[in-house]
Amino acid sequence: MTLATELQQRPIEDLLAPVGRGESLDLADRLLATLAQYEIPDILGLFSPEVQQEIIKSRTAMRKIFRRGEGSIIRRVFSADPQNCVRSHDPKARDQALWSLVDRNANELGLVIKSFETAQTARARMSALISLRKLAHHDLSRARDFFGSATKDRTDIDSAEWAELCLRELAFDAPGGREKLGLPVSDRDAVTLGSKQFDLTMPLHFECRAVTTLANASVRTVISPYWFSQVFGNAMALINQQSFSSNLTLEKQVEGLHKDGSMHYEHFPFTGETTEMSRTLHLHNYWAETKRPFYSSGTTEVVDAAHPVTVGVPMTFFRMAMTATPEKYRTEKGPMPESVRGIFFGFGDIKPETLMARAGRIGVGDFQIAPAINPATNRPSNTVYYGTFWGKLTDTDESGRLVTNKRDVHCDSSGKLDYHGDGAHAPDPIRPTDW
Description:
single chain, alpha+beta, 12 helices, 27% helix
């Protein structure tokens, strides 16, 4: 039996072996490491021939990028001063400094804890908690003590629940650890609104590394969760319980792209397979299939006579996620996620002069999700991007109950753009024929 055949026959969760000394205990980081051996499950028939080829090319690229010592990497981060994660009053600089510590696998738990303690927003506190989880292997006892203390502070319930999730992930390999991850982290009552398009509208938070090939070297840009939301938009997962094991739509809400102040929305319908690790823990192996515009100008929705747009370009990107679906939220329609942690991988393109002139400080519209071959140049797209993400039920009603599907959506159940969310399928207001 070949290694490839063996890997295809082994459940992906079996590849999540306990990590070695000095390696991250974060479950999403551990999933990311499996991409060095990733084999496509028996799902290619779910996609068009064009997207099948994109999936195959993505698999080749992800296995290459995760081989150690692959190529010459020039690291570029937004902030060279780690103290900015405590001292800076700029939320982007502060978050970028925090995640540069994560990227360097720095033994700086004290600095990360101080970043949490001095954070001014719930989002900044959450980012610090996840950063600490990713660095906890440096001093596991200290990290556990801090998370345990944070779970007891009920003045900030969301932070307390995030801290409890971090504790459970760190205990994943302990006896009963998998089972505990599938128990509810929240003791709040929950409700699902019956009048909504989707049963779940869960906000997601992403951190990203983008590796851009320039001549004979690679520029590696570290993008923190706060910066990611500014460049790529705020994201949420849209799920219906009945198709929980096969389908998901990702909605991105991009602010600042339209000069008239209107919001920009993008949607990515995913499909694939789900492995039931237990009744309350699931591993999803999904790929997106979408047709998107590609702007030869290098900037989203910027078109002129010299820089046309190519519409309807078949594209994909990869998503693997582990969801916890406690019995508390299950209905006759199926399971309901309370929390998720996962990874992503795809191709993209950015103008080299944009990347270098700004020392890696890319802005909204500068980076385009792309197929493996740039449709404007017919050469390989110059960037691969990958990273981890996480989410938790957090929206509440006036009674303090968790609402699983409170947020407005701007697509139909298949992921087709419905700009106003009223069923009229209004197009994008700036480039209506592109999307």
